[in-house]
Amino acid sequence: MTRNVIIAGAGPGVSGSLARIYAEEGSRLGLLGVEQSVLAALTDRVAEAGGSAESVVVDLTDDAATRAAVTQMGEHYGSLDVVHFNPSVFREKDPLALTPDELLADVRLGVGALLTLVQAARPFLGPGARISVTGSMAADKPWFGAASLGVQKAGVRNLVHSLDAVLKNQGIRAVSVTVRGTLTSDGPFTPDRVAAALRAAIDQDEASWATELPYDG
């Protein structure tokens, strides 16, 4: 099925693999990220896989700029079928070294930016549209050495539950996939395998919809 897909926090890892999966189906992609060179490389990958992509360099913590970018893409495509949220911050500081301002800055990207993304996309989302999030086992088993990451992943998963509750009566559903492993270049936790799990979660049966699904490899 051809879809109009926005990927926020697009890069070479899981989000890039998800973009390629949709590209192979002929979907049209809108890519949001902070590095032009990364977006350019991913746009080429999408084209090679048979899809098409528009990209915008944007800091997702900039509310006004992100809203403008999403609105631009929504107006360009006319509607949006899938909105995927990928970013988080890995800051290697334990709770005794992490400052409140650093924690809030990390949560601003890893959780708060999802609000901006969904609110801006909402006018273009109709029945059958889907919101997805790359989750992590850090939500349940945080590593003290990167304390803010667990807070981000727990927070964004919680927010997904609330978004789904608000939107489900309009036929729009939200899901996070909790990746219970560390990304590797081979084995069950490659970006391609995790992206396939995300793709399956997005297309799960609405009659038995789950707002959080684990990926155990």
Automatic annotation (TrEMBL):
Q: What family is reported?
A: Belongs to the short-chain dehydrogenases/reductases (SDR) family.
- SUPFAM superfamilies attached here? NAD(P)-binding Rossmann-fold domains
Q: Does the keyword Hydrolase apply?
A: no
Q: What EC number(s) does this enzyme carry?
A: 1.-.-.-
Q: Which InterPro entries match?
A: NAD(P)-bd_dom_sf, SDR_fam
Q: Could you identify this protein by its name?
A: SDR family oxidoreductase
**GO molecular function ontology, one term from the record:** oxidoreductase activity
Its source organism is Nocardioides vastitatis
Question: Which keywords accompany this UniProt record?
Answer: Oxidoreductase
Q: What class of enzyme is it?
A: oxidoreductase
Q: Name one Pfam family in it.
A: adh_short
